[in-house]
Every structure is written in structure tokens, then in C-alpha cells.
Amino acid sequence: VARNPGEAEFHQAVKEVFESLKPVVRKHPDLLDSKILERVCEPERQIIFRVPWLDDNNQVQVNRGFRVEFNSALGPYKGGLRFHPSVYLGIIKFLGFEQIFKNSLTGLPIGGGKGGSDFDPRGRSETEIMRFCQSFMTELYRHLGEYTDVPAGDIGVGGREIGYMFGQYKRITNRYESGVLTGKGLDWGGSLVRKEATGYGTVVFADQMLKTKGESFDGKRVSVSGSGNVAIYAIEKVHQLGGKVIAFSDSSGYVVDEDGVDLQLLQQIKEVERGRVSDYAERRNGAVVAKAGCIWDLPVDVALPCATQNELDGSNAATLIKNGVIAVAEGANMPTTPEGIGHFQEAGILYGPGKAANAGGVATSALEMQQNAMRDSWDFEYTEERLTKIMERIHADCAETAEEYGEPGNYVMGANIGGFRKVANAMAAFGVV
Ligand code: NDP
């Protein structure tokens, strides 16, 4: 804490992982001698830079850019870029730290990193977004490369922003280096299923958890927070598996649609018009913007937090449990507070932490890198099959690891230990680096 003052989210993420690692350290005290724990929570490199740009009124704006290259023991740094006004070093470090173990769980050769800016894309014109992205990449490009560091999207960064950044990278370097960014458009090196991957993967993970109790999504009531990339495709997969999503949200509130979300309408509003969830309620018969409370007050069988960190606290968890929730799987990164996690675990609720449940996005990014390296592109069915298999394996690994350490059903422990082991082994093999 003293070394990293004021980085609350980073402290929270490290504490959770280190709690889970206690039995590993008891079994392997050499981990302490080689200072693997100290090394793993110290980023290999962090870059903070100025992002100046001109708005539509020709006024100069200045934002701050970040890239934390956390750990490259298993492969090039890999992790998204977040554009949101709340971004500061503590958020990027928490996300980068989580990414190390998540990427390890995928079984694919990717290290951990994360980046972004405190730029707020909301209310900005298309040309402002483009100028910002170009300025951001004008500094970031020198730190990237398909064997070095490969960013992707996150909150506030989707296909449009990746396009502007890829265009600027290509222009500055004079290299068509497809493998330098993932989440690209399908006509210029992107992968089918990447857009859907995080949401789909989260639901596949939840489905695997349900199966351990002889349950499935069929006929289940589900709430999904957020209405961005992860939320939309989580909703689609829940519907494909026979469940019904009855609520979703954005930072202004939540919408209840007891008939089940009309996904086409939601996609039109969010992906095409870039509108708000209140626009959905205006255009959909029977859907309402809730006047009070929060999305977690609704009685559901399965809850999928897919918006942002610390959006589900202890009292939200208690309400969900009282209302009969049986499973919670995190599409977002660290959306449940430590108190919330404690409640779910004490009540024996199936709880899938983000670093396992939402790993499908980065896994499919790694599949995009494979296709780029092969100068090839795979069809939707094959790519989705790969994603599904990866998620099933991550679930099995977490479950088996939790069992090995005497805590069956503790996916937090399974994910943290399972992710850490490979990274620690590689770091040990490399010596003191
Ligand atoms: P988007 O920008 O597409 O959507 C984010 C959604 O969350 C929006 O509905 C947004 O509402 C809401 N939201 C964001 N910040 C807040 C906040 N402070 N309070 C309430 N609501 C908020 O992002 P993604 O869907 O890509 O990402 C969502 C989560 O999933 C993040 O935690 C991200 O790190 C995680 N994730 C994403 C992956 C990906 O592939 N995209 C991969 C793995 C994890 P509003 O529009 O009002 O801001």
C-alpha cells in the first residue's frame, strides 16, 4: 500500500489474489525466497503520457494516456484500452494485474497489460473521437508490436476507436502489422466472434457452473448490468440457451422488460444510434425505466454484472440472495466488492469471478492474433467452437484447482491459483528478471 499510494482498486485486486495464494505459499515456501509475489505485483513497465488534441471548436484539450505493461512471462503484453473519465493509474494497474492471471487461464501465449485514458467519449463528435485516437496512438505506437504489446478494446473503446488507432499506427510505422491490435474490423484483419466473445464466454462459463448443480439456463430469469459490448452479447447467448433477460442498465439507470429483452432493438439503439437505455424503454411496449433502487433489487435466478468495477456491493449481494439467485458470473472486471463476494460464498451461490468468466474476450483476441499470423480467417462456427472449448476448459481448471486445494466450488481460489501457477513457473524458469 505504501509503495502504491491512493490506488484503491489495485490494492483490492492484489489483496484478493494474495488471499487465495496463501495455501500455495504454504506448500511452496520457495516462492517467498524468490520474491515472486513482490515481482508479480510490480509492473514490468508503466507508461504515462500527454494526449493533446483539438476539439471541434479548435480549442486545445489535454488528456492523460496510460499503458501498464505488467507481465510478459507467458507472451506479449495483452489487454484492452479503456477511455472513461474515471481512469487513473490505480484503475489501469488493477485491470493489468487481473489480466495477467486471466490470460494465463486461457492457456494461450499472452502476457498481461492494460491501458487507456481519462478521455470521456460521451458527447464527443466522430471527428473529435478520431483526433483523440490519432493523438493517443501517436505516442503509444512506439511501445507496441505484435511480439511486444497488443492492445484491444474495453469500456469506451470498440471497433470504431480500434479502426482510428490502427490507421494511425499503420501510417506512422508504414507497416501493415495486423497483429498489433485486436478487435479489428472484419475487412481488415478482425476475427469473427471477437465482438461476441466476452459476453458469450461469460454465459458459457455460467452454464458450466449451473451444470455442476444439474441446472441450465433453460427457463431462467436473468439480469445483465450494462448495455455495452459485453452486456449485449451476454444477453444474446442467454436467449440462445433458453433463458430470459429481464433487465439491463447504463450509468443513468436500469430498464425492466418482463417480456424479455428485444435484442435487435437494443442493438439498433446502442450499436447504431449510440443511444441510451431510456431510448429503449420509450420504443418498446411494456418496458420501463425503473424509478428507484438498482438492477440487483430484481428477483432473478442468474445475475450477470457486465458494466464496471465495484457495481455490486454487499447489500446488493444480500438482496440477490434473499430473492433466490443461484448463480452470478462476471462479464465485467471486478464488479463485485469483497463484501459481495463474501456473501455469495457464504450462501453457497455459484460465483464465477471475472478473471475466469470473462476470459473469452481476450482468448478470442489471441485467436485473432493466430489468424493474423497465418494470414487467414476462420469461419464463425469454428471460431465459436474454439471459444466454447476454451471456456469449458477454464471452468474445469478452476473447479479442479479449487478441489485440489480443499475448497470445492470456490472459483475465486481456483482462478487465482490456476492463473498464478503458470506465470510463477515461467518467471522462476527465467531467473531473477
Ligand atoms: P462498453 O463501453 O461497451 O459498455 C460499458 C457499459 O457499462 C455501458 O453500458 C456503460 O454505461 C456501463 N458503465 C460503464 N461505466 C459505468 C459506471 N461507472 N457506472 C455504471 N455503468 C457504467 O464496455 P464493455 O462492454 O466492453 O466493458 C464492460 C466491462 O467488461 C468492463 O468491466 C470491462 O473491463 C469488461 N471486459 C470487457 C471485455 C471486452 O471484450 N470488451 C473483455 C473482458 C472484460 P454508460 O454508457 O452510461 O457509461
TrEMBL record:
One of its GO terms (molecular function) is nucleotide binding. Keywords: NAD, Nucleotide-binding, Oxidoreductase. Gene3D superfamilies: Glutamate Dehydrogenase, chain A, domain 3, Leucine Dehydrogenase, chain A, domain 1, NAD(P)-binding Rossmann-like Domain. GO terms for biological process: glutamate biosynthetic process. NAD(+) binds at residues 198, 229. InterPro entries: Aminoacid_DH-like_N_sf (IPR046346), Glu/Leu/Phe/Val/Trp_DH (IPR006095), Glu/Leu/Phe/Val/Trp_DH_C (IPR006096), Glu/Leu/Phe/Val/Trp_DH_dimer (IPR006097), Glu/Leu/Phe/Val_DH_AS (IPR033524), Glu_DH (IPR014362), Glu_Leu_Phe_Val_DH (IPR050724), NAD(P)-bd_dom_sf (IPR036291). SMART domains: ELFV_dehydrog (SM00839). The record marks 154 as: Important for catalysis. SUPFAM superfamilies: Aminoacid dehydrogenase-like, N-terminal domain, NAD(P)-binding Rossmann-fold domains. CDD domains: NAD_bind_2_Glu_DH. The active site is at 114 (proton donor). Substrate binds at residues 78, 99, 102, 153, 365. It comes from the Bacteria. Residues 191-431 form the Glutamate/phenylalanine/leucine/valine/L-tryptophan dehydrogenase C-terminal domain. Pfam families: ELFV_dehydrog, ELFV_dehydrog_N. GO terms for cellular component: cytosol. Belongs to the Glu/Leu/Phe/Val dehydrogenases family. Homohexamer. PANTHER family: NADP-SPECIFIC GLUTAMATE DEHYDROGENASE 1-RELATED. This is Glutamate dehydrogenase.
